[in-house]
Automatic annotation (TrEMBL):
<dbReference type="InterPro" id="IPR048329">
    <property type="entry name" value="PcRGLX_1st"/>
</dbReference>
<protein>
    <recommendedName>
        <fullName>Tat pathway signal sequence domain protein</fullName>
    </recommendedName>
</protein>
<feature type="domain" description="PcRGLX/YetA-like central beta-sandwich">
    <location>
        <begin position="140"/>
        <end position="493"/>
    </location>
</feature>
<dbReference type="InterPro" id="IPR048331">
    <property type="entry name" value="PcRGLX/YetA_3rd"/>
</dbReference>
<dbReference type="Pfam" id="PF19501">
    <property type="entry name" value="PcRGLX_1st"/>
</dbReference>
<dbReference type="InterPro" id="IPR045793">
    <property type="entry name" value="PcRGLX/YetA-like"/>
</dbReference>
<dbReference type="Pfam" id="PF21346">
    <property type="entry name" value="PcRGLX_3rd"/>
</dbReference>
<dbReference type="InterPro" id="IPR048330">
    <property type="entry name" value="PcRGLX/YetA_2nd"/>
</dbReference>
<dbReference type="Pfam" id="PF21345">
    <property type="entry name" value="PcRGLX_2nd"/>
</dbReference>
<feature type="domain" description="PcRGLX/YetA-like C-terminal alpha/alpha toroid">
    <location>
        <begin position="499"/>
        <end position="909"/>
    </location>
</feature>
<dbReference type="InterPro" id="IPR006311">
    <property type="entry name" value="TAT_signal"/>
</dbReference>
<feature type="domain" description="PcRGLX/YetA-like N-terminal RIFT barrel">
    <location>
        <begin position="50"/>
        <end position="129"/>
    </location>
</feature>
Amino acid sequence: MSEMPHVSRRTFVRGVAAGGAVLPFAQLPGGTPAAATPAVPKETAEAPQTVTLRWLEGTPAAGVGNTWGVPWPQGALAPTESFALTAAGGADVPVQTWPIAYWPDGTLKWSAHAIPADAPLTETYTLTRGQQSPGKTPPVLVTETRDRVTINTGVIKVAVEKHGTALISSILRGSVEIARNLHLVSLRQRKIEDFRSASEPLTSAITSVRVEQRGPVRAVVRIDGTHKRRGTSWLPFTVRLYLYSGAEHVRMVHTFVLDTNGQDEFIAGLGVRVGVPMRDALYDRHVRLSGDGDGLLREAVRGITGLRRDPGANVRTAQVAGTKLPDPATWDQRVTTRLELIPTWSDYTLSQASSEGFTIKKRTKQGYGWVGADAGQRSRGFGYVGGVTGGLGFGMRDFWQRHPSQLDIRGAATDEAEATVWMWSPEAGPMDTRFYHDGLGQDTYPEQLEGLNITYEDYEPGFGTPYGIARTTELTFWALAATPPAAELAALARTVSTPPQIVAPPAHLAASGAFGGLFAPVDRSTPARATIEDRLDFLFDYYRNQREQRHWYGFWNYGDIMHTPDPDRHVWRYDVGGYAWDNSELSPDLWLWLAYLRSGRADIFRFAEAMTRHTGEVDVYHLGKWAGLGTRHGVLHWADSAKQQRISTAAYRRIYYFLTADERCGDLMRELVDSDQTFLALDPLRKIRTEPYTPDPHALSIGLGTDWSGLAAAWLTEWERRGPKAGVAEKKLLATMRTIARMPNGFVTGSGLYDLDTAEFAVAAKTVSVSHLSAMFGQVEICAELIGLVDVPGFEQAWLQYCRLFNATKAEQAAETGADFGNLILKQGHSRLTAYAAVRLGDAALAARAWKEFTSTDGYTDASPWRTTHLEGPEVLNPVDEASWVDTNTTALYGLAAIQNLALIGDQLSS
């Protein structure tokens, strides 16, 4: 055997302790991890004294506060470490810090940080260990009574109700009430084909309110409830309100779960509505709606421009600017005496019906006709209604991307206007969630397997239901002291569409040992490396452009990508069974996140972020008997009957969570801790079993690949977060690792019988059952993390055996395990397993084999075209740049293999 220098655990997982077994968390009674003094590892890493942070897209135009995460090497920082933050130029910045993950020895793994809304906006910041500056910004103050939570940011005061329909009863700026009665609205419709069918309005009903964070820089309030009317209840929701010290805004993260089967009741509208007191004269009231780019519709409720008689240039200029008009006694009196004859425009609607177009219309009041104002392509989804003494800015992120969406302003000429942000526009008609075909006679498993053989769709009656899927939307509400100038409003609109994000640099992320050490910063130092980097860029750029050219947008679709192209029609196979929406098949989520971690590219971050928001919500069930399972790829995101751990896996959410400390993403991963229970509800192998099988809670058949890796990812995340189920998660994780290690063929065994009570696998006989899919849904990444974290005797050996043998010869497989693995595919994607084994074993021959598997087996190679072809009509509907040789399975695996091979054995790549 050819040898490389043996790579220690500390070197392999940068900064991770190498000496001896890593101890599990100390336990309190009941299995809760203790915050006691951690065990000191024999060898500890040194934390960098400073970390230079930057804004993802450059210095933002508006300050709104920010939250981000930073990783640290094992053994370097105490769990209670404090930090200080300075802006470029040396100014102290108040920073709130809290831990979001720990290493098994108890030291700090990930810290989260927040800065105030009025923090100085500089290109970079320096984070250092030490005492934070108290700063000049008053802390955000949270007071709580039996009925209400009140949050004071120092600029606004927000009253959150614990009962009733209003999530926020009032927003005050000083003594001025800017907004009131913020609540959720929905429209339910029973018939979808008959658009004359009346819809039933429902509104939010609060069931619980909990303060999750109390400052001093950042406060978070969670509100749970449902939509109700006359005893009817549907669409359970979770809303989080985020308020930062010095802020004049409230950020809202809204999640609803679809608790209908999608066949006999439909969402005809879903939105957030808020009242806005109107105090000013009608000519001092203003409406603003954002259009393309920085475009704004700027109107007054009673306009005094364009009249037959001119009130005066200074009057007209003031109204367009949104400032208080001079006393009407100073105007041309031919206007002043006829003000009541000028119509007031009370109602406005901006409707984004598709990703390619919005319209704006207005009317004087209800019961009178609408007048078309203008149209455009893509609105940023921001509006304002108010006057010279104050008003409300409001907006929805991903407004045009998540069409059909809508902004309404009603009653601007009355004492109280009403602003509604529609996440589903009522003008679009009811949301169609019905299954798309009648089953085609596939009533039995053999018939369904035949269908799988022709359209790649795994159909089963009753399984194509959206019941339990979810969607999360981000909204922002500004309580403004007066109508802002156009440039400031445009900056707020940009903030809505692209919220600022602080990030740590790739070099620090890699050096910390985060995520198993499977990535390294982009390196173009040799021609061979540069070629791979160019190809990685080509693939991402292609998918980014395909999303735009193929219009992969829409309420349920945005964030996902397609699975396989159809070169004959020059489209992706959007209508062909399992070849349509990808639903995380073969881990494009991980490819994108690792691509970001090593590059720091903002466009990759945003693409991956949208995918995480989609795949964690839409492709996964959150209610019902399949809660905790995800749905395989298909024409509809919920269509396929394969409901599995491989899609719901926390491995696809972890990176976004730790980079942003996003609480909703944290919820999604915590939901999965007990998802081993789903194997009682659904047997993933039910259609292909040759022997009768009844789920037994003490002997559940669970695959050691796609099933266990999904479970392990959830358990690991809960354990390192020290969540409320950390003790249970630790038990399950370590017990399964121990019993997999005891199996004579380890992971090669394929599956095991799992006991829900003990969380152990029964030790199986020496059997061989290997699938090309087993390791391709996060198992590579989770095993790398686990081996770097805990020393479970035999586990690493079992995983390295699988890594060595998957791409080995049949003779080598049979000699070691008793049988060969059959005819396997996805060898390029599995080259990263070979590379991992090469590093852990210090085996140069394995490293050379890994590069050969990467470059000259299956997948993309030097012989691939590595270019696109431009097509225009009449061959295609719209002009596109097509690479018909690209598919998402191959892309995800090429991307992951390239990134990990470069990080692991890049020095073995010939120049």
